[in-house]
Amino acid sequence: MNVVRRSAAALAAAAVIGAAAPAVAASPSPSPSALPDGLYGTTDPKYDGVWRQSLALLAQHETGVQPAAKAVDWLAGQQCANGSFAPFRADTGQACDTKTMVDTNSTAAAVQSLAALGGHDTTTGKAVTWLKSVQNKDGGWGYTPGGPSDANSTSVVIGALAAVGEKPAQATKDGKSPYDALLKLALPCTAGGKDAGAFAFQPDKKGKLAANADATAAAVVGALGKGLTGAATKPTGTDPTCKGSPDAEQAADNGAAYLTTALAKTKHLTSAMPGAKPQPDYGNTADAVLALATAGQGDKAAGALGWLQANSGPWAKASGPAAYAELILAAKAAGADVHDFGGQDLVEQLNATGPKPASVSASTAPADSTKAGKEGKEDKEDSAKKDDSSPFGVWWIVGVCLVAGIGVGFLLSVRNKR
């Protein structure tokens, strides 16, 4: 799901989904004067702390890195007593209450990360119970409890259910499963042109669906019952084509066909604020690569993967741990070398944004691993200064999401989401 996306998800939720936010929702916990020792990244974690931590730990796990215990403990310690997670809680000694802004995306991402690492069954079990308790009658989930279902949030929760060994199709509310919710957000093949087979983030106020590349990438993975790490599958041997009356699996294929078309010309997805020139969307492009690989269409993502290898370095450096993690997960799904991604060692760069890992697998460590897993405090301070002035910073992404309604579901990680 997208890298910087979650960072503004809470902010964007109120503006993009309007009434989706419950009346009890208030401002997130204030940020501490000093960042927690176990946290990845140097930017304000108020809106994306749990999201970026979850992605970082997942990416490390996928590449044979055992995270520092304090990094894992920090994530687990963010949970509220009812099982939910807020984007960030500055004082975990204070119990969550009705003013604590919890959300499905932070909770589902934390579940996927902690389930992968193992040893957190009680924590993940409570979180999944909470997620089920806030499922909508259409079978899906919104960003905030009670908010209208969206493709991104529904998909990340599907991934959480699968991560703990549950069958998403059996998680129903009023007889509707998460897959039913996703199918309602799928544009029909009769939509014609470039929008055929895409998914919408949410219907607009009139119930109309608008194609959204970020939501499509998330929904392709979710419709296949997978999570944030995706799952590379064998090539299908056929080009993806849009076919009518789809079940969840066919809807995923339809979404893959849409993404293939969207990437064909420029090899990347774009985002744009009103009145501004479209800009390359690195996070959403990475999401699309992972989605295509998961759908067995990894060969259709080769051009986008090559584009990311050649161009994503400055963006990842400016955006921080979630960006590195997103690139790692996309590269892994597509079969690329995470230690030589356009000349960059993504694992080493991710490790340097947080506490020194407990261990790095010899089979996955780079030849020169002396820099990998530095304590990273000085480097993190330097990168923080660059983050604030970067054209790829969080608030540019937030602006895009607020205006276009993109990425609130999956965010404000960095996916425009679309």
UniProtKB/TrEMBL annotation:
Claim: Oxidoreductase is one of the keywords in the record: no
Highest taxon, organism lineage: Bacteria
SUPFAM superfamilies for this protein: Terpenoid cyclases/Protein prenyltransferases (SSF48239)
One matching Pfam family: Prenyltrans
Protein name in UniProt: Terpene cyclase/mutase family protein
Transmembrane segments: 393-414
Sequence ranges of Basic and acidic residues compositional bias: 371-389
Residue span(s) of domain Prenyltransferase alpha-alpha toroid: 65-168
Position of the signal peptide: 1-25
CDD domains: ISOPREN_C2_like (cd00688)
Keyword entries, A-Z: Membrane, Repeat, Signal, Transmembrane, Transmembrane helix
InterPro entries cross-referenced by the UniProt entry: Prenyltrans, Terpenoid_cyclase/PrenylTrfase
Keyword Transmembrane set for record: yes
Organism: Streptomyces spinosisporus
Chain spans, region Disordered: 229-249, 353-389
